[in-house]
Design goal:
- By secondary structure, the protein is mainly beta.
- Helices cover 14% and strands 64% of the residues.
- The protein has one helix at 2-24; strands at 30-64, 78-88, 96-108, 114-157.
- Strands 2-1-4-3 form a four-stranded antiparallel beta sheet, with helices on one face.
- Strand 3 (96-108) and strand 4 form a beta hairpin.
- The longest helix is centred in the first third of the chain and has 23 residues, at 2-24.
- It is elongated and about 85 Å long.
Amino acid sequence: MKASNIAAISALLLLGASSAQARMQCDIGGYWETITRNVQVCDTETETYTETKRHCGYSGYLSLGHLWNQPDFPLPYLSYSSTSRVLEQTSSCPSSQWDMQTGIYWYTKPDGTKSTDWYTYSGSLPLQSDVLKTTEHTRTIQTNCRTEVRTQRVWRCGYEP
């Protein structure tokens, strides 16, 4: 009995202390306002799942395309490239993958001024690897969503409108 009386008195003191604290922050006084809001509430559940994807790796050499101007420094005829694709587990990797790389090179014009132009390496890269990779993921699922009414008392500074 004494314990429940002490708990009730403690709760009242805490409520009074928080109310006094809120009121002390207002120079001109204030009032309590009751705010009622509709809030959407859902039950949440965390789910772990695995996902398997096919990773296709391609690598090889690309060929230099046509250059409209003579570069100041020679560009190699071939450029090494590697790329990859991620597909669904049930898909199969294509036997090759088209790839292209572009860049800028300097050249000297006939009047002696320097300028830039674009170069392009392109070609078909052969399939080098076909690997299935499984990863674990976590997602949150919301169920049983509903609207609930929430009422809250808020201390407002100033005079009641």
